[in-house]
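Researcher: Let's do a round of design. I'm pasting the structure tokens now; please hold your answer until I've finished.
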């Protein structure tokens, strides 16, 4: 069963024929600073305004790729467990229809990454993030935007880049993270990996973040991508600078799909 609504392209390819499937997950029930539930809608609006042409590849990505935006998963506010179940069921249903499709998830808080990764089972998880998110629990909750990555340790090859804020507990846990990307790879991008000067609309902005150029350099080093999520964008309006940054992050990801798959 799938729980979906909304979409962004002018024309949607059927999911079973798509090169790329886009799914929004508007869940932010554990966030200290909520609002990322509106991220998928704001990113879609910005995507309608940017050019699809990639000058490096000399191709219009939006025309080259068969994109199916299935809209948003109908999340259950206040319940991670029920929302996670819907995420897993939706992914399994899609994989049954199109096992080779690249999936792009638009969040939503960072906790949404956990059920996605547990369902897709990649060999490596690469996390672009300002925060380690490796606490065992946060405010008494084992399943939180601040703990999601701790559930991956010991089960997945977790590699973190851009982290510059962590507790003493997390500093110790970070020693268990990997440093070499291998096999099928899942990429999760917290918008706060960028410097607040270019990405102010996020729940917990941290100074000394990445430029867009630094993001692109780090993205280039990742191969065998099977899926990506973009999370923690808390829009205050449509077509803001952060929304356009997020849309261009999506565009760069689609460029990697074209470069590697087509």
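Researcher: That's everything. Go ahead.
Model: Designed sequence:
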């Amino acid at each position: 069963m799938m729980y979906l609504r909304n979409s962004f392209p002018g024309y949607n390819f059927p999911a079973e024929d798509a090169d790329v499937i886009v799914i929004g997950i508007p869940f932010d029930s554990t966030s200290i600073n909520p609002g990322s539930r509106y991220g998928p809608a704001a990113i879609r609006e910005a995507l309608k305004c940017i050019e699809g042409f990639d000058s490096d590849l000399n191709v219009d990505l939006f025309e080259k790729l068969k994109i199916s935006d299935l809209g948003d998963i109908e999340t259950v506010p206040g319940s991670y467990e029920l929302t996670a179940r819907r995420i897993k069921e939706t992914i399994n249903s899609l994989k049954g229809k199109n096992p080779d499709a690249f999936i792009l998830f638009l969040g939503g808080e960072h906790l949404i990454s956990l059920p996605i990764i547990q369902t897709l089972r990649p060999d490596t998880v690469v996390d672009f993030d300002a925060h380690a998110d490796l606490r065992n629990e946060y405010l008494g909750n084992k399943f939180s935007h601040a703990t999601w990555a701790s559930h991956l340790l010991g089960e997945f090859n977790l590699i973190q880049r851009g982290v510059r804020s962590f507790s003493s507990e997390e500093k110790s846990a970070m020693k268990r993270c990997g440093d070499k990307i291998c096999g099928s790879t899942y990429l999760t991008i917290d918008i706060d990996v960028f410097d607040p000067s270019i990405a102010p609309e996020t729940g917990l902005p941290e100074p000394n973040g990445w430029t867009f150029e630094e993001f692109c350099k780090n993205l280039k080093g990742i191969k065998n991508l099977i899926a990506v999520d973009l999370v923690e964008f808390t829009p205050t309006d449509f077509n803001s600078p952060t929304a356009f940054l997020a849309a261009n992050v999506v565009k760069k990801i689609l460029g990697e799909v074209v470069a590697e798959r087509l």
